[in-house]
Amino acid sequence: MAPKRRNGVSYAATVAEAPTGIRERVTKKLYIRIVLYCFVLFIINYLDRVNVGFAALQMNEELGLTPKIFGFGAGIFFLGYMAFEVPSNLILHKVGPRIWIARIMVTWGIISCAMAFTAGPTSFYILRFLLGVAEAGFAPGILLYLTYWFPAKERGRAVAGFMTATVLSSVIGAPLSGWLISGTHDWLGFSGWQWMFLLEGLPAIILGVVTFFYLIDRPEDDRRWLSTEERGWLIAELRKEQATVSSHGMEDFRAIFKDARVWLLTLVYMCNGIAIYGVVLWLPQIVKSIGGLSNVQTGLVSAIPFVFAAIGLIVIARSSDRTGERKLHTAFSGLLGGLFLAASAFAPSPIIGLVLLCCSAFVLWATLGVFWTLPTQFLTGAAAAGGLAAINGFAQLGGFFGPSLVGWVREGTGSFTYALLALAVFPVIGCFICLSLKARRDS
């Protein structure tokens, strides 16, 4: 049978005749053109998702929101997100990432700006839920998009590079949000938290339009990012991997709901998400409770753990890519993250507590990068589109439960100590669930 050709490139020949260094050259180009761009998009996405934690420093008092109300409202975002995650990713797989990701960004930007007009508990709940609906499909959509372009061997670092945005958005966003709610207070009669929502929501709308013109759906459609030789090698490499996954995995979307691995991975991600979102959405108030800090200082201090989280994401992802081992990197990162978080709850001083939170962040957030290499070991095609969305979507129950749990414990005990301890239990549970999975090394 003659080798397959497209646009004058023989893909079978390309694999056999691939020149030395082409893998490194292609990966470097894709990292710059795709990962760095998606990294910027995810910074804005994550900032608009969690900046409500800083708004609470002013908004809760102005609107009379109790810890229970705030915790529930912060978490209800994830119910909307979960409900529309799978349909959104299936639409993306059908119409293409460029159109659908652009649509998602413009929609969530508009609703994020509308958060500035929250008037009480009811509107707070409604807008947070709608924001979750609008953002649904973005993160798994980008994860799916990366599988269109990156071979498995390079995928761990690519995913980690993208996921680093979740922590760097806090490194950047925490001081920015702290400054905005203080520096813009009473501008044109609006409170600082209202200006924060408006000014941090606009970039999503602008970059959503840019995304429509910038992204390229698949390597087969590329005329700008890679040379003909590079594109041919990449397409051949991806097709070879897809054939391997198809031989022992699944492509049918409906089959994912019958596969125990999908549900076990969902539980792992959910357990880690309970701790991560419980910390993220309450961290400004945890730091503020130390006493004596202004809103700007609270923002600066809140950024410190996320610096360590960003470092951990890259370091552990590189280790995982180098060895090809995925399961143990994911499991033990969660375990250590939970243990450090538990230790921080009983720290004898705020400084030691902050150090332990930094240690927890270093390993706990690292699970976000390595984890997503596990489902793509057995999912491809429509099953990958639906499976990644299902895992990410159903796991968002952790994003709802974590902040709500902190609110209930905080209101019941008057302290964050037992709230942090409660959060710490879940990554430990996630570790043991992860260890029960059968996973292979990526060669």
TrEMBL record:
Residues 34-442 form the Major facilitator superfamily (MFS) profile domain. Keywords: Membrane, Transmembrane, Transmembrane helix, Transport. It comes from the Bacteria. Its main location: membrane. InterPro entries: MFS, MFS_dom, MFS_trans_sf. It is a multi-pass membrane protein. PROSITE patterns: MFS (PS50850). It is found in: Membrane. The chain crosses the membrane at residues 30-47, 69-88, 100-119, 125-146, 158-181, 193-216, 262-284, 296-316, 328-346, 352-371, 378-395, 415-437. CDD domains: MFS_ExuT_GudP_like. This is MFS transporter.
